[in-house]
Design goal:
Number of strands: 11
Radius of gyration: 19 Å
Helix content: 25-40%
Structural class: alpha/beta
Shape: globular
Strand content: 15-25%
Amino acid sequence: MEKTKYGAVKIDGKKVATEIKEEISNRVAELSGENKKLPHLAIIMVGDDGASQTYVDNKVKAAKSVGFHYTLLRFAETISEEKLLKHIDQINQDDDVDGLIVQLPLPDHISVERVTEMIKPEKDVDGFTNQNFGSIVSEEQGILPATPFGVMELLKRYDIDTTGKHCVIVGNSRIVGAPLSMMLAKHGKATVTVCHIHTKDLASHTQQADILLVGVGKPGLISADMVKEGAVVIDIGTTKIDDDTRPRGFRIVGDVVYAEVASKSSFITPVPGGVGPMTIACLLLNTLQAAERRISQE
């Protein structure tokens, strides 16, 4: 395992994501050799937000790299909610499509809740629908939310045992913090504390963590004095900040003061290159699993 220059082992999400995509590619090749239909991912993008465009381009590139079929549907920011819902319904009814992603954010006049709930749970490879969210604690597990799924895969592939450990999550979002807390408690058999931006005396909680997971989007939130010696630190936060020294004029940073915390922790994820690449890899893995379920039902 590669160590950072500060002492902690670097949890290399980029490397693990590449391994997962290779595993998916191998399975797709097997499906092709068996003359079975290949996984098909549909992506909807509304408007022309630059960051969203980058995320969509990365998802398309990843889908192509593993041999998936893909469909990219772009709509103007002015599309009505009803018209967008009709397009989603058409994809729901298309038996050739295994997974559907609607890229967020959406324009203010479109309800994210309505759009999300319109997607068939079995095609919801983001894992955002209420049915999939609830299934985290059910015996009938549906599709796991991609980013928390990616975090769990990193812990598993780095042999970081969560059983009986005290996991402290900073950030209680519907997309990351909340589902991750349930996954760690149910599947990871951990004791979980969930904190957020309104938590008083945050350090008194983070200092108790065997495994500290942070996803708030506030650069520099977690410093070394807030971390227990030898803790595992998973930085899920991503914020774009201006940086004239970089060719693109900005850089991506996490919520953790990396150099400080890496000198005190046992394992740490960098930003970028930690959890970020795992989100797309797990979207692909969700799509493959959705396709496999469909094949088994046939």
